[in-house]
Batch of 4 targets.
Target 1
Amino acid sequence: MDCLLRRTYDAAALVREHPLVVSNANKRTVLELACPAGAQHGGTITVTRWRAAALPAHCELAATEVVCERGHFQYDGQDGVWHVNFADPKLFFAYGSGLLAQDELQALEHPALGAIREALLAEGQPAVTVDDTGPTPVLVAGVERRCELDTSRGLYGNAFARAPAEAVRAALRVLEPPPRSNVLAIAAPTGAPGRYRPDELYGALVTAYTGFRAARAETRGPVEIRTGFWGCGAFGGNRRAMTLLQVLAARLARIDRLRFYAFDDRGAADFAAAMADLERVLGPEQLDAVMARIDGLAYEWGQSDGN
């Protein structure tokens, strides 16, 4: 694995020296409550950025434990647990805006993620998860989760910016003491309506594989990846395709456990269908042959959910 960048920040100094730039009033409300005057972030944060890894030629798969759960991400601060950030190519770029999809929600609950973006830009480093060479996943280890926002109260996506401040306050729980999370930022695939092209499927697999292998490289002991329907909201990704490719990437990268949050019964059914698809295409041969069979499943792009 080729690490393009490694930085270790004192969390308190990072947030003090690279203040967040927040334009949305509701996000300012959250930050005032989660990071009140005089409060200090604790510990150190390690940031790494990685060059795209070459996929193995043969489909040699680990016996990764794959767990599907209803509901949303759970953060419990365990060592070796990494939470996927469904990132934009510009790392955490909308953290201070009125947007609140999965990427921005994670940045809101972990405010130092925005300070990392500001610090990298101040240093002249590319704050990106994709460059001209391909995907460049970014890993953030040890970032405090200062609060939890209950988006089930009609606050997800574009609805967040329109909500009254009172509704935001009522949905917010400040975490004391704040636990720490490990975040894996990988850019969600985008595409046009119609059937997935082979290069789109291949690119998504490379992105997930690189991110998962980087998490493996940065972790002593077992690795658990926590993820969901990556890129299947605002970008209109196909749930079955994105599930299958992430599970395949985890097994190729020798991840110990992949915990998949499927939201509800419909999501669990989509997950099960993707796992059945994966079993149909797997075989003990060249990975290219497996990818050709995945292409043969004729997955199609869906519609954006507008968030």
Target 2
Amino acid sequence: MTGALRSVTSREAGLDSDRVRTIEDLIDEGIRAGVFPGAVALVARGDMVGWQSAQGDAQMTPERRAAALNTIYDLASLTKVIATLPVALQAWHEGRLDLDAPVQSVLTGFTGPHKERVTFRHLLAHTSGLPSWRALYLKAKSRDEVRDEICRTSLETDPGAKVEYSDLGILLLGFALEHITGRRIDELAGEVVIRKLGLHDTMYNPPSSLHARCAATEAGHGYEREKVGENGSKFPWHGSVLRGQVHDGNAHYAMGGIAPHAGLFSTAWEVAIVARQWLRPGALVGAAAVREALADQRHGAEGYPRGLGWVLHHRGTFFDALGPRSFGHTGFTGTSMAIDPDEDLIVVLLTNRVHLGGGNTKIQEFRPRFHAAVRGAVL
């Protein structure tokens, strides 16, 4: 494999080969316990990949396919930090996006009580006061209608008062970036991230020719169907198992698979290439952008530490076993990435846990154990 990473032995990457095997055993345990049908995981130190493994199945129904190192996963919310965050930081670096400017200065339709106080920094730090999720597609049938629905959505808390993870906030940020640049988020991510880093398996809407490599997710958006209940009784839900089509309902039904909060597909190797840029500022994000993004952005807000986009290390997070300067993110489909600058460590875990049902939450207990096992293998 080529790119900004190279495959070496566990020992060369500063990993204990015996303890690495305990990570593989843990993934096998997760498969047997129904945490996920399969997984591709990777551990790197800087540019050296010292361990990677594909275990279990990329699909179980209606046919069975084994997971492989080049399996392409629906990254879900990893899209936020792999695509949208670098685009936003590039716009900030160029002076095109003022993080402390009101969202209304770009999206004039974002009106209502206290909304004049919501800034782009609030959106990236998830302190805007916007709710976490809405089935926007029940009313919105286009990108413009999604934007308008969010602009009409009332804040649940005062801006800057509380950390509340919000898909709607990142969607709004994406619409602002598209307005500022005149280009759609996939075009922006293509320029700022994908082509700049020479990625080949990272994309929105994988073509049908790649669907055989894509891990399957849920059948018929069962989880969201249950969440919306009677409101979605007449909605034309996708009926079959999703493979190569985004799992997130707002991206799938209202945005053509292309959204700032979800929709990106990739492999563990290419996710790690992006992660490496946060250890080696330059090509993707500069040193000033890294410092800004990894500073605690709560500024008095109630809740856990958040940077711009990233979850920062704190007790009880999924990467709690890593160092105090570590940071990471998860995706609803069962994906995660974590980075520990003090150990020059990158940890990627890609699963399709929602293939077993969107309500399957066993991965929440699995992730901390997985990262503890990885930390135990670091020499």
Target 3
Amino acid sequence: MPTGLSLHVGINQADPVFETVVLQGCVKDAQAMFELASTKGFWARKLLDEEATFDNVNETISWAASILKDGDIFLFTFAGHGSFQSNETIDLGNDEIEDQTILLRDCVLVDNYIRRNLWTKFKPGVRILGIVDSCHSGSVLTANLILDSPILNGIASGMNMSIDAPANAGGGGSVAVAVEPHIFEAVVDVSAAVPAGGRGFTDEQRRNIENSNPALHQKIRDSLLPANTPLNAKVLSLAACQDNESAADGPNHGKFTQALLDIFDGGAFSTYQEFMNLIQTRIGSLTQAQHPALRPQVPDALFVNEQPFTI
């Protein structure tokens, strides 16, 4: 019988020295996802606020990767601040024009570290399901490559960027996709202000955070694996919004998590795609500023067609 392990991270307040806005619903989001996972048979763990450090998250995911095998599933949920930053190392073979980020208790964690250093620990055939409710979260768990735009191709060519071949379907690696206008806008505007009530932080705040804890951020940069590090697990991400959008916080839950819980309600859905379509419809009836995203753009066909939260 397959095994399901899960980790649920919720951070209302990162280290106070970072001076980011204190959120309201992230801890409750993590608690709700912990309970949902438990009812579906996952062995679940949660890391909330002060517990949600880089070391704790890294060690818990590494432990799960050491245990799970072909056919098993790892569920990772994150609720907290998210942002993005321009990629200053694209000429060194980096695999994106920009990096999406999440904010842990003590550091900014970039999508490339999640994709290259964490997900690559898992054995072939393991399914990794990520659910993230933060600003700019579209590809933060998959670090997708965006290539099908003449403008972006020109940027890549002009900066001597090497393009890796696409990874296996569903691997969350380099995937050529059609670029929507809002994605290119995100590449251009890396210092956009965070809307009131959003779960984001600015580029200026990111620099302040990194300067407040330079040793840890340098450790993360120094340990980043190459862009072509093989990813053998199957990755599927359900994100609160597109890469250039903000995700709304709330007193009880984030808008995305609340919609997910309302739609799920203990019910059975035929596929993850159907589940996300219903969530998108629910959020769309409330706001046109937030559009949930299923990633990667070319998901593993078997994984995306499973019944949600099936072990």
Target 4
Amino acid sequence: MKARLFSLVSVTTLLLLNCGCGRLPGKPTPAEVPVVPKQVRNFAELYRLNCAGCHGLEGKGNGAMALANPVYLAIVSDDTLRRVTAEGVPGTLMPPFAASAGGELVDAQIEVLVHGIRGWAKAGPLQGVTPPPYAATATGDAERGRSAFATACASCHGADGKGTTTTGSIVDGSFLALVSDQDLRTTVIAGRPDLGHPDWQHCVSGRALTDSEVTDVVAWLASHRLLTPGQPYPTSQTKP
């Protein structure tokens, strides 16, 4: 009797041990367990969910500029990418993504995005040419900018910047209300290859734009901003 009881206990113990080593019936595999959003560390997934809607798949551009633009990646620093991704750009369509700034991403996810975007950079895209710096180092002059615009930009955007039969207005108040001066500067320097817009080296035949010309063009464009964009409020009202 004792031997039979011992045998039964031994078999039961072995069964319990075997169950502990394997997957219980109905228990999901690790692949089946949903990942908590803040634990995602895959760049492709983070970019697709947070960036591709505006900047295009694989950074090729959409409503916003192409982040994979080699000239853009040559002039922008990791610190700037990190700051803009985390904090957004106030007054524009670029929102903050860091949880600390009202977004949903943790710092580690911001780092994944920064390093992933940097990974799109190509070796030697400027072929030894030094572009103007990412940020302006001086105050632009709108009057000089008018002349620089006529030389470098008017052939595509029209003499007054209001567009042609193939391009829209870049002095429209609503457009200027949605972009910062830095957005304008970045576009002049890096271009918009996804839209056929040349970079600073190819706006003028035979030479590149200087840093001063870029700064002055941005100042001229910015001078067209309105206090109440898109709202044609009357300048005066007649009381009944």
